[in-house]
Amino acid sequence: MAWNLDSDRPIYAQILERIEIQIVSGVYKPGEKIPSVRELAAEAGVNPNTMQRALAELERHGLVSTQRTSGRVVTEDMNMIKETRNMLAKEQIQEFIQRMRELGFEKEEILTLLKSEAGGEKNE
Amino acid sequence: MAWNLDSDRPIYAQILERIEIQIVSGVYKPGEKIPSVRELAAEAGVNPNTMQRALAELERHGLVSTQRTSGRVVTEDMNMIKETRNMLAKEQIQEFIQRMRELGFEKEEILTLLKSEAGGEKNE
DNA sequence: ATTATTGTATTATCTACTTAATACAATAAT
DNA sequence: ATTATTGTATTAAGTAGATAATACAATAAT
User: Fold this and answer.
1) Do A94 and B117 form a contact (C-beta atoms < 8 A)?
2) Taking the model in full, what pTM does it have?
3) What confidence tens digit (pLDDT) does each residue in A85-97 have?
4) Does residue B34 sit in helix, strand or coil?
5) For residue A106, what are the domain limits?
6) Which nucleotides along chain D are within 7 A of a protein C-beta?
7) Residues of A with CB under 8 A from a CB of B
8) One domain for residues A72 and A83
């Protein structure tokens, strides 16, 4: 799977966000071990230091923990995972509405546009 | 009005986007003169070089043009303005749907969430 | 004619991010 | 016991963005 990293924002931040999404959407399950720093760095095509930074931050968020030499595992706190998912969704919704308002669109208009656009794309 | 610049993305890019939005949403009208580089830089609290870069890029997009010493004016091509607005809106919609899908939300769910969130905030 | 304002260019410095190349301690695997 | 893998730390170098301090040419305003 492509990592789709761009140069608009710091790479470590994009990686952090991506793995966070993979956890809350179930790609990495509660209690599951995630690949090593070196492995993920190779997969993403970034320097191990950059991946280490992203994972260390992710750990600060509480979604993963580390056992020194055995690697990192996803938290088993399913409630935290669920809450994180809801929080991320809420952020997306708020930001989307605000940006559309800045462009001069009203509530109903936004809903109408969404309805007509939501059916068009599947996976590309 | 606050410029709300953060350190997540390059400042010049945020400024570029902001002024673009101001043009397509009618804050700056077709043919209207926009403030000088130094003026805008002071207002935004950034270095004139940074503002110059943002405006030069904006000019590349075609939304403003410059007459050497009299300053910059917004294009009078209302069609271009309208099309830019639609393009920006479409981008927002596509990105929003994609991100919500990555979080594991389905079409109907997204619409439902939007409906319940869209009434909650006005201007804060 | 003089002055002020315009966009623009230049050079230097600072900071954050990224890569590179190692190294080390802890421990799981053998 | 030895080896390989783990997260982690360190030092150096490169790059992009932002600021600072000027400077200049063109022209609108006086």
Assistant:
1) yes
2) 0.90
3) 999 999 999 999 9
4) strand
5) 79-118
6) 5-11, 16-22, 25-28
7) 8-10, 13, 21, 24-26, 85, 88-90, 92-94, 96-97, 99-100, 102-105, 107, 110-111, 113-115, 117-119, 121
8) no
